[in-house]
């Protein structure tokens, strides 16, 4: 965390973080399934499916606190800077890497900010679909970001991370979350291969992610 | 609570803790005898279950010693956890969101409130009649016909099982023992002990001696396991008859009735899990799976035990 924030503010951010994680656990009994990786502090990029605003806090909750400290979600600046409360929660509690998703007005390059965060040693959480998926399809087409990051820093593990049930817990437009059990499944890491083109890689990444979805015949609907 | 009741509760708790201590020591002794670097998965699983039993026994003891209100509250929370596990695996669409939210945050608390207030005329019909009619209306008004009957039926089933049936355990508290004493708390201990003991004996006896399976496609439960479980339960029921108004034979019969309903009920739950392709309902109780894995027999036995008590000794 930057040193320009007072100690009190940093403590408050930690306390709010613990409170949010506890709330997530009480409501959804959220649980991690470490299928392809071990829960150890290693630099990684977790890329996940995105169906609700609760997605990122869920991943954040199941990470052990030693890993949580160094893991920064990549999130939209226009969302997290909308009011003072969000500006505290996003950048200070979750330590988000805020990026500007409006290409016509932005002054800094999102990719550059992401690479900077990686070079500082942070792990990242990203949602390569770019937007919340409200369709019946398991995933929206991935944006190019994941490929560009993977090509510039090919040694860092890209870990597919599937969030099950969140579209039922909090469908877009609903206010009260439904307390169903949420599972976060971490798969085996992938990397951008030598000479692999964008389409081929993004297809492979999406397949690795969907493969983690529970095989329940009902969730396919 | 009268002094006599408190004393009896403490005595029973000590007996249960003694039994658990004995089982823990025996299992630890077997584990110590194993050569270094070797583990026996049966013993490890058994110890994990015993540790969970310790936790459950301690929580239930504290609730019972704190009185009827805490027992009702405890079961309301258990209902919440059970309903959460059940509805995680049912069919639902966005149009059901409001119905489901009401199920968790309004219907469940109201059911336990009615139980606590002893409004028997209301708590016995609230979910089977009023909720049964209301929730499909809400889902229909939001207009999504896809799989409609499956969705409303599965939601209703979840509420019946996880809220309605389970609420009959604290409802035992409102039963007035004929001699006028406040012995109904002891009835809950009696019920919990005979049902859980039957499960325990059925599991291990069925594994060791069982041959013929009752429903081979669904569950590994065997005829011998069930007979042994029910017999053990009836025996313990007779031994515990002094805490009930049933008399010795009556207590044995009530224990047998509760345990046979409970064991058959867990076969029903096994069928649901097979259909949904899951082994356990969740991972919240170490060594047992989820709340529903632990409570399936209690859920089925509770309404039967409740009504048999009222019919036979009301």
Structural class of chain B: mainly alpha
CATH architecture of chain A: 3-Layer(aba) Sandwich
Q: Radius of gyration of chain B from the CA trace? A: 20 Å
How many structural domains can be distinguished in the coordinates of chain A?
1
| CATH structural class of chain A | Alpha Beta
Total strand count of chain A, please? 7
Strand arrangement across the biggest beta sheet of chain A: 1-7-6-2-5-3-4
Q: How confident is the prediction overall: mean pLDDT of chain A?
A: 88
Question: What oligomeric assembly is this protein in?
Answer: heterodimer
Q: Roughly how many Å apart are the termini of chain A?
A: 42 Å
Shape of chain A: globular
Q: Which residue ranges of chain A are poorly predicted, with pLDDT under 50 across at least 5 consecutive positions?
A: none
**Structural class by sheet pairing and helices of chain A:** alpha/beta
Query: How much is the average pLDDT of chain B?
Result: 91
Total helical segments of chain A: 9
Question: TL;DR?
Answer:
Chain A has 221 residues and is α/β, with parallel strands linked by helices. Helix content of chain A is 38%, strand content 15%.
Structure description:
The complex is a heterodimer of chains A (221) and B (314). Chain A is α/β, with parallel strands linked by helices and 221 residues long. Chain A has a single domain, classed as Glycerol-3-phosphate (1)-acyltransferase (3-Layer(aba) Sandwich), CATH 3.40.1130.10. Chain A contains nine helices and seven strands. The longest helix of chain A is centred in the first third of the chain and has 22 residues, at 7-28. By secondary structure, chain B is mainly α. Chain B has three domains: 1-66; 69-174; 183-314, no CATH class. Helix content of chain B is 75%, strand content 0%. Chain B has helices at 3-33, 41-66, 68-88, 97-117, 120-123, 126-141, 148-165, 168-171, 184-209, 223-239, 247-276, 291-313. The chains are: A alpha/beta (221), B mainly alpha (314). The interface between A and B is medium-sized, with 16 and 22 residues. Chain A: It comes from Kangsaoukella pontilimi. Chain A: One of its GO terms (molecular function) is 1-acylglycerol-3-phosphate O-acyltransferase activity. Chain A: Keywords: Acyltransferase, Transferase. Chain A: Residues 44-166 form the Phospholipid/glycerol acyltransferase domain. Chain A: This is 1-acyl-sn-glycerol-3-phosphate acyltransferase.
């Amino acid at each position: 965390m930057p040193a320009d924030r007072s100690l009190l503010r940093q403590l408050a951010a930690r306390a709010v973080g613990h409170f949010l994680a506890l709330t997530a656990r009480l409501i959804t009994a959220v649980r991690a399934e470490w299928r392809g990786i071990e829960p150890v502090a290693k630099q990684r990029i977790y890329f996940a499916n995105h169906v609700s605003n609760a997605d990122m806090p869920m991943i954040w909750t199941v990470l052990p606190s030693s890993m949580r400290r160094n893991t920064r979600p990549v999130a939209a600046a226009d969302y997290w800077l909308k009011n003072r409360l969000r500006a505290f929660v996003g950048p200070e509690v979750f330590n988000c890497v805020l990026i500007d998703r409006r290409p016509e007005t932005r002054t800094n390059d999102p990719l550059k900010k992401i690479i900077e965060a990686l070079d500082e040693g942070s792990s990242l959480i990203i949602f390569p679909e770019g937007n919340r998926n409200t369709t019946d399809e398991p995933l929206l087409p991935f944006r190019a970001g994941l490929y560009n990051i993977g090509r510039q820093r090919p040694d860092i593990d890209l870990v597919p991370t599937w969030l099950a049930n969140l579209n039922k817990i909090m469908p877009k437009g609903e206010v009260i979350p439904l307390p169903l059990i949420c599972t976060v499944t971490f798969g085996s890491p992938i990397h951008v291969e030598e000479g692999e083109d964008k389409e081929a890689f993004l297809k492979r990444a999406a397949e690795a992610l969907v493969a983690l979805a529970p095989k329940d015949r009902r969730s396919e609907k | 609570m009268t002094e006599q009741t408190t004393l009896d509760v403490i005595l029973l708790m000590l007996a249960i803790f003694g039994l658990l201590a004995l089982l823990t020591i025996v299992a630890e002794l077997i584990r110590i005898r194993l050569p270094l670097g070797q583990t026996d998965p049966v013993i490890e699983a058994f110890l994990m279950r015993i540790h969970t039993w310790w936790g459950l026994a301690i929580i239930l003891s504290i609730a019972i010693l704190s009185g009827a209100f805490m027992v009702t509250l405890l079961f309301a929370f258990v209902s919440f956890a059970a309903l959460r596990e059940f509805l995680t695996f049912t069919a639902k669409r966005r149009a059901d969101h409001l119905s489901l939210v009401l199920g968790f945050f309004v219907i469940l608390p109201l059911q336990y409130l009615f139980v606590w207030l002893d409004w028997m005329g209301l708590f016995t019909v609230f979910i089977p009649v009023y909720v049964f009619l209301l929730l499909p209306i809400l889902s229909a008004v939001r207009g999504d016909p896809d799989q409609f009957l499956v969705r409303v039926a599965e939601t209703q089933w979840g509420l019946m099982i996880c809220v309605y049936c389970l609420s009959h355990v604290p409802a035992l508290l409102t039963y007035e023992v004929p001699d006028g004493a406040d012995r109904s708390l002891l009835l809950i201990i009696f019920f919990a002990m005979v049902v859980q003991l039957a499960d325990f004996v059925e599991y291990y006896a069925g594994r060791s001696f069982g041959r013929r399976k009752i429903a081979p496609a669904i569950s590994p439960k065997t005829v011998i396991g069930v007979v042994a479980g029910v017999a053990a339960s009836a025996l313990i029921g007779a031994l515990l008859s002094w805490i009930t108004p049933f008399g010795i034979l009556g207590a044995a019969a009530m224990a047998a009735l509760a345990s046979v309903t409970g064991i058959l009920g867990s076969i029903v739950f096994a069928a649901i899990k097979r259909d949904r392709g899951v082994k356990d309902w969740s991972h919240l109780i170490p060594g047992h799976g989820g709340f529903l894995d632990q409570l399936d027999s209690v859920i089925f036995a509770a309404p039967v035990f409740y009504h048999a008590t009222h019919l036979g000794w009301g």
